[in-house]
Amino acid sequence: MRNISRNDSGVYLLQVINGRISSRTFSVSVYAPVSTPVIRNQRGNRSVSSTEQCFLLCTVENGEDVKLSWYRGNERLNITNNTDLNVPLNLPLQIQLHDINTNTYTCVSANPVSSKTASLNIAQLCDHNSGQTDRSRSLLPVLISAAGFVLLIISVSVWLWLKKKKQPVPEKPELTYADVNITAHSAESVKEEENSRVTHGEAESDSVVYAAVKKSR
């Protein structure tokens, strides 16, 4: 039978004519190839601390007689199927931390005529951290904000310093000093000086008068 589709499934009658007629019935089931399963972290968080497990979920498109299985090496851990072909098949798996680096895990979708396998990449889906890394990641935004604030303060301080440095400094006025001599005169010396000028004046007057009188004789 060639070029068949899923609509060709059913019960067929075969007649063999060889001098006499014989018949035989058989059932034909046509299956579509299965889809490749997809593995993801069930909790949406790749990182796991030292006290947690890795929760995985394998998903595949459902189909006629499709079964979904988890394998550890050659050992099948669990299997599922669903007769409701409108609902995807999901199969969870929890991995212990000591198994992360010691075993190989695969998810297999299969029907009677085909199968597809997806291998688990533990490094991508189940990063193992000590818990310290998670705290460091949570503090990273705070540290970045603090560093930005410090840089802002430094930038403002430098700007103010440069602005102050560029302002002209007013020149100080030059001061001229002059020597002042102060001569103190006592009252007695002033009086003697006045008497001297008066006496001198009277003497001059007397001599003038005397000279005039002397000439008249």
Automatic annotation (TrEMBL):
Chain ranges passing through the membrane: 139-162
Keyword Membrane in the entry? The reply is: yes
Q: Is Mitochondrion included in the keywords of this UniProt record?
A: no
Q: Which residues form the Ig-like domain?
A: 37-123
Keywords for this entry? Membrane, Transmembrane, Transmembrane helix
The family database entries (PANTHER family) matched by this protein are listed as: CD48 ANTIGEN-RELATED, LFA-3
In its UniProt entry, what is this protein called?
Answer: Ig-like domain-containing protein
Q: What is the lineage of its organism?
A: Eukaryota, Metazoa, Chordata, Craniata, Vertebrata
